[in-house]
């Protein structure tokens, strides 16, 4: 049974379908057979990194330096397929490519790009992106991490929180206040004073790594400062890359949830007939399909605009907000259709629903994206007061 009732398939090119087929095969081969165990054990499977790199998924939308240089739509399709496997696996690719690698590609020197991007594209070096702090999430301008100049070096002091991959990263993109505003730095994670501690006992994103970072007098050479990163605009440009991927990715979790619920309802017998033959079940499935396809069309529209160079930040916010809201509703409804069996890891919707609580929160909460859209409508910024 297909969930593509609008035949969105017909809107894709042969190349886009081929990308989807390759990534879907990777997910079926490398992720689906193991994800329940990884989630249960709260373990990110570093052993799959070479397979992700070999498929060209790390920094796949970047050009040059060994990156695949694929289109925005192909990148979005790949994120949708990865998140159909698990949000944590898609998050790894997003942090590596859309945040860490994107920061270097957009704001780094030619030397920094040549040093890091080829290795990161091959999965030989892992990056993380340190913006959020314990007391500065939705308001990154309130960050307290500070970098002071000391001769030819910088000394960084502060703390970051909820930083994906930090404990396994080789390089950390750290954003800090300076006497001249916010700047970005590439920090060798082996540096004295840099400590990354995984956050334990999570109820969401269990097959992923998020960390606290402590920066205690970390010395960073001037050559490791991102020369083209000035002010909050710099990290926001990277966040928009990640948000675009989320607008697609969350729909992979939603689609997988719907497919599981549809298959289960077709097999489950109640009162002598399939559960899928019940009116209330069909109403649920129909609403889920409607929301999913509406958001898939929106994501594709955003991808086409991004490839054309016309995508605006508020449009990305609309995609991220709509997809995450729809995906979490779909995952929850799918879990309900599964009844008691839906609370185990044998079936994916509850795992997806738990993960989507994080996806909905990171890279901008519902409230932040609502205000971005509100500002686009009214011309008034309502983030303060």
Automatic annotation (TrEMBL):
The keyword Iron does not apply. Keywords: FAD, Flavoprotein, Oxidoreductase, Transit peptide. Pathway: Amino-acid metabolism; lysine degradation; Amino-acid metabolism; tryptophan metabolism. It catalyses: glutaryl-CoA + oxidized [electron-transfer flavoprotein] + 2 H(+) = (2E)-butenoyl-CoA + reduced [electron-transfer flavoprotein] + CO2. Its EC number is 1.3.8.6. Residues 13-124 form the Acyl-CoA dehydrogenase/oxidase N-terminal domain. GO terms for biological process: fatty acid beta-oxidation using acyl-CoA dehydrogenase; fatty-acyl-CoA biosynthetic process. Residues 230-377 form the Acyl-CoA dehydrogenase/oxidase C-terminal domain. Residues 128-218 form the Acyl-CoA oxidase/dehydrogenase middle domain. It holds the Pfam family Acyl-CoA_dh_1. Its cofactor is FAD. It is an enzyme of class 1 (oxidoreductase). One of its GO terms (molecular function) is glutaryl-CoA dehydrogenase activity. Belongs to the acyl-CoA dehydrogenase family. This is glutaryl-CoA dehydrogenase (ETF). The lineage of its organism: Bacteria, Bacillati, Actinomycetota, Actinomycetes, Micrococcales.
């Amino acid at each position: 049974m297909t969930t593509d009732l609008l035949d969105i398939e017909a809107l894709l090119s042969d190349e886009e379908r081929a990308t989807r087929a390759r990534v879907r095969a990777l997910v079926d081969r490398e992720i689906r057979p193991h994800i329940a165990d990884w989630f249960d054990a709260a373990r990110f499977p570093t052993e799959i990194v070479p397979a992700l790199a070999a498929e060209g998924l790390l920094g796949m939308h970047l050009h040059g330096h060994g990156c695949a240089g694929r289109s925005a739509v192909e990148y979005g399709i790949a994120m949708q397929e990865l998140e159909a496997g698990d949000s944590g696996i898609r998050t790894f690719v997003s942090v590596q490519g859309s945040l860490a690698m994107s920061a270097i590609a957009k704001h780094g020197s030619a030397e920094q790009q040549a040093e890091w991007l080829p290795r990161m594209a091959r999965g030989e070096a892992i990056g993380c992106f340190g913006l959020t702090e314990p007391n500065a999430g939705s308001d990154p301008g309130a960050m307290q991490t500070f970098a002071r100049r000391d001769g030819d070096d910088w000394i960084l002091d502060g703390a970051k929180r909820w930083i994906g991959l930090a404990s396994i990263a080789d390089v950390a993109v750290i954003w800090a206040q300076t006497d001249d505003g916010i700047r970005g730095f590439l920090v060798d994670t082996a540096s004295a004073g840099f400590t990354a501690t995984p956050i334990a006992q999570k109820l969401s994103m269990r097959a992923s790594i998020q960390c606290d970072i402590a920066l205690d007098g970390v010395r960073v050479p001037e050559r490791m400062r991102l020369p083209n990163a000035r002010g909050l605009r710099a990290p926001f440009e990277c966040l928009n890359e990640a948000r675009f991927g989320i607008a697609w990715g969350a729909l992979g979790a939603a689609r997988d949830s719907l497919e599981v619920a549809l298959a289960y309802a077709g097999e489950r017998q109640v009162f002598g007939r399939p559960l899928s033959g019940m009116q209330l079940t069909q109403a649920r499935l129909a609403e889920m399909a409607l929301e999913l396809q509406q958001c898939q069309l929106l994501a594709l529209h955003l991808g086409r605009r991004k490839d054309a160079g016309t995508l605006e930040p508020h449009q990305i916010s609309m995609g991220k907000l709509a997809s995450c809201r729809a995906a979490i509703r779909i995952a929850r409804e799918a879990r309900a259709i599964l009844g008691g069996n839906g609370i185990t890891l044998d079936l994916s919707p509850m795992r997806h629903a738990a993960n989507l609580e994080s996806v909905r929160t990171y890279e901008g909460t519902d409230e932040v994206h609502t205000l971005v859209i509100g500002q686009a409508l009214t011309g008034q910024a309502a983030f303060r007061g």
